[in-house]
Amino acid sequence: MGQSTDTFDQSSIVALRKNLPAFCGEMPVASQSNASLLQYLNYYQLPIPLGELKLRAGTLNLQQQPVVTMSWTPKNVRGSVIVVHGYMDHTGLFNHLIEHLLNCRLNVICFDLPGHGLSAGQPGFILDYADYVGALNAVISASQTMFEGPLHAIGQSMGGAILLKHLMQQDAQSDYPFSKLNLLAPLLEPHSWTIKRCLFLLAKHFRRSSKRVFRPSSFDQEFLDFVQHRDYFQPRTVPMAWVAALSNWIAEFKQFAGTDRPINLIQGSGDKTLNWQYNLEQFKSKLSGLEVQIIADANHHMVNEIEPLRREIFAALRL
Description:
The protein has helices at residues 10-18, 35-43, 95-103, 129-146, 158-168, 193-203, 221-229, 240-254, 276-286, 307-315; strands at 54-62, 65-73, 80-84, 107-111, 151-156, 181-184, 209-211, 237-239, 263-268, 290-295. The chain is an alpha/beta fold. The chain has a single domain (77-315), classed as Rossmann fold (3-Layer(aba) Sandwich), CATH 3.40.50.1820. It starts with 9 loop residues before the first helix and ends with a helix.
């Protein structure tokens, strides 16, 4: 992520949240006259609504808590894609992917999960991944009402886990919403999970959170520096409740009976965040329609890898 001369802090967040309408078909298209929204877009280098590019920014109400949702619509749209971000991420970090999808003539729908980015909630906190799926379902419903054409999905890390959990909840009679499902380094077991789980079991009785360690999840050093030092949305602690929810997700997937639905999984061989080789074995045992594409040397945060690797990753998407 390149340098930005703009600033974005707590006062900016309050101003932006205050001015967001409901995310629905009747909402107005955003314009550059919205100073707080323009400040946000500039700071995170997100596409500015110019010419035929339309931007909608609003909120969906989930259990009385706003989930901030945005969509970018280019000309000659051939479909839509919902992007689900990872843990501690938010829409602002997905500028490269959004630009790529717009160039593919796709309507791009992004939302900040509860406890992330502009959305409400305690930072990084969740009791169960079902709450994340609830937010996804709200975005799906709004998208199906507002936009025509096929609907696809892309999930990065925990976003991939959320899309999998959503898929696991579908029954034979369900009308599955996604034509194409893409998972980028989907989250199951993190690296050194056995040790981390033991430490969690010891600490959960007397600690509510642990200090967050910023690890190199990409070979793009500029991106890593931005996340650690200039992104206001980055929490400094990890709630124990989220680790418990992760543990429950791992157990739930291992008990899943399986599905033959086509899934495109893209994984980097340089991933130091996940126990990715073990995870692939688990995914292959449950997902008979799985296509796996390994990107040599790519690290975990695939949408923010260095440009040559990012080009390979985006070319591997099925849309």
